[in-house]
Amino acid sequence: MHPMLKPALRRGWRDLNTIQFGVAPAHALTLGPVDTATGSFLQLLDGTRGLPLLREEGKRMGLPDGHVDKLVRRLSAAGLLDDATGGGAAADALRKRDLAMDRLRPDLASLSVVTAGPGEGMRKLAARRAMRVRVRGAGRVGAVVASVLSGAGVGQVDVMEGGVVEPRDVAPGGLPTDAIGSRRDAAARQAVRQWAPDRPPRRVRRAAGAAGDAGATGVGGEAGAVGEGEPALSLVIIAPRDGLDAHAPDPLTAEPLVASGTPHLYAGVIEGTGVVGPLVLPGATACAGCIALGRAERDPTWPRMLAQWRSGRARHVTACDLALSTTVAGLAAAHALAFLDGLDGAAPASAGVRWEASVPGLDWHARPVPPHLACPCGAGVVDKGEHPAGDKEPHDTMVG
Q1: Mutual orientation of helices 120-128 and 98-114 as an angle, nearest 10°?
Q2: I want to staple 289 with a disulfide (CB 3.0 to 4.6 A). Which of 11, 251, 281, 371 is the partner?
């Protein structure tokens, strides 16, 4: 172990005997009492020395026997200490890739803040490289989500989308202007490769139509590994260019994901509202079927309205504010990474919850999405008298 004070946490002396680590209240901690010799010794915790050398340095500074080990244990228990050599074999392999590490150091610093154990941040960063995520949709939201996940170190980001790139699909961080007229899926995959900090793991080539081939089996192929030696999908992000499919997801489209137990997250923009979530953990949280059944139960006219909106697709350009779509993409990617990293062993705040914000106020609020008793997904039951705040029906309004 090469102990290192977490570099992302700024340090300052509150008084002569107390050090504060961190600025933001969510992560700030104080350490005290700290004598002058111990305060000087803390400067040596920079990851360049192992414990034996640190003990020798402590003796030269007049620290009592056992003080260094006690201090290291104390700092580690408080979540203030990292290990410059920790994280396991995958982390060691990633450290050897200098260019990738230079790109990912800010992400590593962030992970070190939100993980307690020394070396745990590096372990999670290295684990991303072995993960495979699929993004359905290559518009202003989907393409940006895919690029962000790739840039954050997710080793394999697939994109599924049909058609060709139109001017309306272009967005900073997503599809570039020179992609207009090219296939959306190919352009999105090019963006993913461009933003990747390192070359992704080599894919196993297969004959066309092999089991699990998305081109041959469609959505059903998302259940497991695409080919021998290739990882199964860790997550599917559904970010359709038509925000209606994120706001009111089609249960039939999601059935293969639910049946295969594949986690999936919805994200999109409908009119002037951004939607992130819910994150569906099949069998544990509400799915698209639960959403449909719950909404129809609260508003009996909803299925009729939805059928009209789906069958009469508008041919004009749908509303998708660029700043809002970029915000939605960033929040969706953040929720996806929180889930993939398994931070604190808990599901992120989008599990069973839909986050919404509308322009111009941009007041993000959470709408709980409970499982429905009649849904065959088996996620659970809710009290029949419970009516969550989400998806309130519109007030009767006379339009003159």
Answers
A1: 130
A2: 251
| Token pair listed for 187 | 């352009």
Q: How far apart are CA 83 and CA 21, in angstroms?
A: 17
Give the three-state DSSP class for 104.
helix
**Structural domains in the chain, sorted by start:** 3-125 (3.90.930.60), 129-368 (3.40.50.720)
Place of tokens 């340095």: 57
pLDDT by 10s per residue, the chain, length 400 = 899 999 899 999 999 899 999 999 988 999 989 998 999 999 999 999 999 999 999 999 999 999 999 999 999 999 999 999 999 999 899 999 999 999 999 999 999 998 888 999 999 999 999 999 999 999 999 999 999 999 999 999 999 999 999 999 999 999 999 999 999 999 999 999 999 998 755 554 443 333 333 332 233 345 444 455 567 899 999 999 999 999 999 999 999 999 999 999 999 999 999 999 999 999 999 999 999 999 999 999 999 999 988 886 666 778 999 999 999 999 999 999 999 998 756 677 889 999 999 999 999 999 999 999 999 998 865 434 444 444 554 444 333 3
Residue 23 Cα to chain centre, angstroms:
24
- How far CA 160 is from CA of 138, 201, 216, 317, in Å, comes to 7, 19, 13, 21
Own/partner long-range contacts of 368-372 (Cβ < 8 Å, ≥24 apart): 369/277, 369/278, 369/285, 369/286, 369/290, 369/291, 369/294, 370/286, 370/290, 370/294, 371/285, 371/286, 371/287, 371/290, 372/286, 372/289, 372/290, 372/293, 372/294, 372/297
